[in-house]
């Protein structure tokens, strides 16, 4: 009869104890993958999203050190453990290969690098791929939207027009939109004015929930600018204005009490008639009627004037040059000027100015002589 073989329980116990110890040591030496504790957060809108990461620090401390940070009691953790937790928190670098201009469906690779000198608890190298999701679509702004919701008005002279107001009627919060106008100050009726968002506004839109579709410009027809004749000969009732010019200068320098020595007698000579379509800003000094430079549609005469005393002696008191005429010669559809809307203008020059100097000044103010 064969003898049964019995297992030496003492030896088996030693093997079991050794195996358990190896399992325990293996468990203690296992390293956590930090990417398992990383979550990506997405901000902005689709195609212009941004990403950042957050780390579940509570879970790391719980799983590695078996510490519940929400219920830990003061003084229950050793200083060595606290130091190890602090070292672990400083031991890693996290890199995202994409952070900006993200679209839903994009892939982001997160790479973790750990300094093994600071902690043995984390894997030295780990990597994880995340897919972007949840970014809302932005609100598009098209050229048609701009044209519909931006109201442009014009003012000034036809050919020298400017934009006077740009009003916005958007329902959404787009009050920050600012615009610039191409050729502002040179606008003409019937042409198209190009209105564009400023570069600063475009950059601000790129940081918002709005998406600009196009270059941010639109056009609008220019209307409402005042018509002034390019030359005086275009004015159909020019003779009426010339007559008013002659009557006005004679009223301004009308003889008075000429039979007495203290009276005044004037000798007026017309040296030329001049017209200018557009204003030219100049510094003429203070005078309530010295607007020869800063008005449109001006027709003036240059006159040499001598003032004599009255009576039989007729002594020359003074001589001077006067520029006298009208501004605001606005044309209607028939190139006719409304005489009731003329504005009287004048500027006097004493005898320190020669006639030639005054005529040169007129040229400098952009006046052209006509017959």
From TrEMBL:
Tell me which UniProt keywords the record has, alphabetically: Signal
Signal sequence, start to end: 1-29
Q: What is this protein called?
A: Uncharacterized protein
Specify the species.
Metasolibacillus meyeri
């Amino acid at each position: 009869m064969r003898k049964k073989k019995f297992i030496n329980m003492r030896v088996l116990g030693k093997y079991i104890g050794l195996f358990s110890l190896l399992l325990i040591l293996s468990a203690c030496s296992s390293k956590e993958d930090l990417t398992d504790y990383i979550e990506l957060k997405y901000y902005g809108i689709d195609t212009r999203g941004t990403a950042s990461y957050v780390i579940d620090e509570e879970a790391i401390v719980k799983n590695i050190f078996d510490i519940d940070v929400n219920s830990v009691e003061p003084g229950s953790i050793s200083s060595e453990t606290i130091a190890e937790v602090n070292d672990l928190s400083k031991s890693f670098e996290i890199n995202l290969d994409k952070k900006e201009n993200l679209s839903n469906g994009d892939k982001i690779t997160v790479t973790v690098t750990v300094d093994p000198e600071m902690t043995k608890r984390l894997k030295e190298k780990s990597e994880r791929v995340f897919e972007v999701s949840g970014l809302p679509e932005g609100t598009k702004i098209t050229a048609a939207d701009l044209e519909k919701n931006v109201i442009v008005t014009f003012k000034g002279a036809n050919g020298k027009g400017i934009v006077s107001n740009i009003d916005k009627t958007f329902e959404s919060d787009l009050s920050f939109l600012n615009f610039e106008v191409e050729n502002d100050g040179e606008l003409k009726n019937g042409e198209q004015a190009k209105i564009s968002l400023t570069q600063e506004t475009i950059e601000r839109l790129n940081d918002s929930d709005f998406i600009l579709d196009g270059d941010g410009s639109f056009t609008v027809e220019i209307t409402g600018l005042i018509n002034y004749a390019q030359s005086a000969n275009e004015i159909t009732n020019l003779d009426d204005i010339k007559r008013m010019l002659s009557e006005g200068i004679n009223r301004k320098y009308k003889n008075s009490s000429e039979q007495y020595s203290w009276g005044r007698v004037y000798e007026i000579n017309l040296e030329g008639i001049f017209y200018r379509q557009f204003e030219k800003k100049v510094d003429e000094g203070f005078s309530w009627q010295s607007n020869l430079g800063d008005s449109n549609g001006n027709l003036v005469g240059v006159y040499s004037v001598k003032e004599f005393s009255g009576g039989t002696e007729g002594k020359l008191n003074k001589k001077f040059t006067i520029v006298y005429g009208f501004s605001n010669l606005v044309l209607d559809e028939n190139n006719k000027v409304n005489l009731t809307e003329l504005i009287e203008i004048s500027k006097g020059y004493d005898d320190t100015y020669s006639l030639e100097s005054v005529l040169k000044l007129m040229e400098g103010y952009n006046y052209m002589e006509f017959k």
